[in-house]
Amino acid sequence: MTCIPTSSALGGWPSRAAFFVLDTQNALLNHTGLEGRIAAAVGPTLGGMGYELVRVAVLGREKPTVQIMADRADGALIAVEDCEAISHAVGAVLDVDDPIPGEWTLEVSSAGIDRPLTRVKDWNRFSGHLARAEVNMPVDGRKRFSGIVLGADEEHGRLRLDDGTEIALPLADVKKARLVLTDALIEASAPSRPGN
């Protein structure tokens, strides 16, 4: 689910919700520079609201888009109302912190089914599902991997590759990792129905 608000005016106050955000423990993993500054600024506010930051991305230069991706801390699905509440709170925080000069757009969204794996808990929660990952520095001579998620600890995310070998990817060096949309992932992500 994605809620896309309209763009902000000068300085960045969003008129409506767009992307979604939150998490405070492992969310800063791999967030550096401007994205790290934004994650540090908005993370505590979102945590206080009952959300977890999944990812922050800043896209574009002339009129950048700040994308905030979040989960509800209680595990429930994100609703449009959640996106709106996050958008207003994050917009206020960013207006005060002012990390981006000039105009910018805020997008707030849920992580979705084929979500990025940005935190240790994501790697562990989605163990058994197919994912693709890319690292900044080669591991065993390669930078791109596809395989079944085997979980993670504070330092490494693990995958079982198609040939059956297992690889440990240094989380600090993971450029991006994302679940692959499969029937099994869709079934596992579906809300449970009453009576089941």
Can you walk me through this structure?
This protein has 196 residues and is α+β, with helices and mostly antiparallel strands. The chain folds into 2 domains: 2-110, no CATH class; 120-189, SH3 type barrels, CATH 2.30.30.100. Helices cover 24% and strands 32% of the residues. The protein is built from 4 helices and 9 strands, in the order βαββαβαβββββα. The chain has helices at residues 33-49, 80-97, 120-125, 183-189; strands spanning 2-3, 51-59, 65-72, 105-110, 130-139, 142-152, 156-161, 166-170, 174-179. The strands form 2 sheets. The chain has a 5-stranded antiparallel beta sheet with strand order 8-7-6-5-9. It has a 4-stranded mixed beta sheet with strand order 1-4-3-2, with helices on one face. Helix 1 (33-49) crosses helix 2. The protein is globular, with a radius of gyration of 17 Å.
Please trace the helix and strand order, writing H or E for each element.
EHEEHEHEEEEEH
Shape type? globular
Number of domains: 2
Helix segment count? 4
User: How many DSSP E strands?
Assistant: 9
Using the CA coordinates, give the radius of gyration: 17 Å
* Beta-strand fraction estimate: 25-35%
Stretches where pLDDT falls below 50 for ≥5 residues? 1-28
As laid out across the biggest beta sheet, the strand order is: 8-7-6-5-9
- Helical amount: 10-25%
The structural class is alpha+beta
Measured distance between first and last alpha carbons: 24 Å
Output mean pLDDT: 84
